[in-house]
Amino acid sequence: MQVPEMFKKDDAVSPVIGVILMVAITVILAAVIAAFVFGLGSPETAPQASIKASNMTSSGFDIEHQGGDQISFENNDTKLMIAGADRTTAIDGNDTFSVGGELWVNTSLTDGDSIRFIDDDSNQPIASFTADI
After folding, report:
1. What is d(CA 88, CA 68) in angstroms, rounded to the nearest whole number?
2. Are 112 and 131 in contact (CB under 8 A)?
3. pLDDT tens for residues 43-93?
4. Is residue 27 part of a domain?
5. Could you tell me the CATH number of the domain that includes residue 71?
6. Quick check: 10 pLDDT over 80?
């Protein structure tokens, strides 16, 4: 076999590299499209607020918004969970709760109940307390 003949037999290298590059581009495009479709962006975050609970009795307690984002109870945007049960309807007052606001929560409590305000969109807690009657 002569040396010049050996170099003439490399015809298939370009098509193989071309196919590999096309597959790689297709995979990258599929990953980018999937990221947009499935929403792999930043997750929802709960409102950041400082809430103080006081005057706890067996028939309810006061809450005071001391700072941070406004909290909305309208359309169940924020839920009040007491001992694992949804007690959002027990909140007496406005649909929105902003800095300086005070509300009465008219619900039965027992000592040691867990009290949590949870953002419904992100399912993250806004504030947590333990009933101290």
Report:
1. 20
2. yes
3. 678 889 999 999 999 999 999 999 999 988 877 788 989 998 988 888 876
4. no
5. 2.60.40
6. no
Q: Residue length, the chain?
A: 133
117, part of any domain: yes
How many domains are contained in the chain?
A: 1
Nearest 5°: phi and psi at 29? -60, -40
Instruction: State residue 41's pLDDT score.
Output: 61
Among 105, 116, 127, 114, which residue's Cα sits nearest to residue 59? 105
The answer to whether residue 125 sits within a structural domain is yes
Name 90's Cβ contacts closer than 8 Å, sequence gap at least 6.
60, 80, 105, 106, 107
**Are the CB atoms for 117 and 79 separated by under 8 Å?**
yes
| Residue at 25 is within a domain | no
Q: What SS3 class is residue 31?
A: helix
Which pair of tokens denotes residue 44? 């929802």
